[in-house]
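User: quick one, fold this
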Amino acid sequence: MKSDLKKQLRAKAHALKPVVITGQAGVSEAVLNEINLALDHHELIKVRVNAEDREQRKELSGQIVAETGAELIQSIGHIITLYRKNPDK
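Assistant:
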């Protein structure tokens, strides 16, 4: 993805609130299902990754990106911004 498009998506995502929050159990099948539904509907979403340390958050974020096929736009603290183009729109 080109940096210009990422910049536009970051600006667009600034006003968004997280639509999915991972629990203490981490990334479960139900959480991944909700993320996929949100990406299908909105294309650009924020997810709150509740993990204690930075390495664990990075690992969970990578797992979410790999399982959903989404593009990681931004990661700040506990919040990650994901984008996946919906081919039906």
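User: anything notable?
Assistant: The radius of gyration is 12 Å.
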